[in-house]
Structure formats: C-alpha cells, structure tokens
Amino acid sequence: MRLNKEVRRLPRLAPPGRPGIIDVEDAVELNDQLGYNLYRAALLFRRELIRALREHDLTPEQWQTLASLWSHGPLSPSEIARVTLQDLPSISRMLSRMEKRGWVNRVEDPKDGRSFRVELTKEGSHLQTLLPPLIFEHFEGLLGGFPEARRRKLLELLRELRQVLGDPTP
Asked: What's the CA gap between 170 and 164, in Å, rounded?
C-alpha cells in the first residue's frame, strides 16, 4: 500500500550515506532505529549484569540500590525509585527481600517521623568490596574489544540523552 508523499516521509536518524528523511516503508528497518538499538543494547547489558550478579543472588535493581546507598548514604524509598525506575510497591517488596538478606535496614527519617530511610548494614557495606570488582571484570571481558575512548564517548552521549528525555537522576 502506498501512502501519499506528505504522510510517507518521516524524520529520523538515518544510517550513513542515506538522507535524514525516508519513506515509511524504509522506517521499519529496525537496525536503523535509535530506540530499537538502545532498547536492545539495554536488554543485552541487563542480561550480562544478571549473569555477573547471579552468584550473589542479586537483581540489577538491588545492585543499583546498593550502589546508590554506597555513594549517597541513607535514601528514602522515593529516592531509590528514581534511581531504579520502579514503582513504590515494587521498591517496598525489593527492600523487604534486601532486609531479609541482611543488606539494609529501614530507619526512621529524622526529618519526618512518618517516613523512613534505607541504610546499609555492615553486610551491605561489605558487598562494596566484592561486587564492583566482580562486575568490572565481567564486563571488561565482554567489552575488551570496545576501545576505552569510545566507551567514555558513549557514556557521555547516553547521559546527555537521559537529560533530554527528562531523567530525574543526575
């Protein structure tokens, strides 16, 4: 089915050597789509992170929570939700599992007695000596052929894209 020319032309990122405005029929080439490539790379990266964390029975969201607590100290569930992009009921369940594992405690928020903050236990703090080197080693093995300068540039571009898309975390 052919669409009229006004409807058929869509702006998008085009592969090298192709114009920036293309026909709708060409737009379904997934490998040329920014969103598809970002999503696919995120899924592949998450799969590898799950593999790296498997021996410690940690999820990527638990890893993000621990890393945030190591960097920033006690956080509220809402602050953790902004980092993990999970809803508060999911955060509550995750924190319960992390408490049972002995990694975190819930403590009363000194500024608001109705709320609580999440803090690391001694065991949760100790994981900082184990997990980052484990994850670094895992990904270094995978990304060894991807030059360091290109990794830094990719990280810079992804941070910029997150800002453009309204990511609430710094």
From this structure: 12
CATH number for the domain spanning 128: value is: 1.10.10.10
Tell me the residue range of the domain where 118 lies.
58-164
pTM of the model: 0.78
Tens digit of pLDDT for each residue in 105-156? 999 988 887 889 999 999 999 999 999 999 999 999 999 999 999 999 999 9
> How many domains are there within the chain?
1
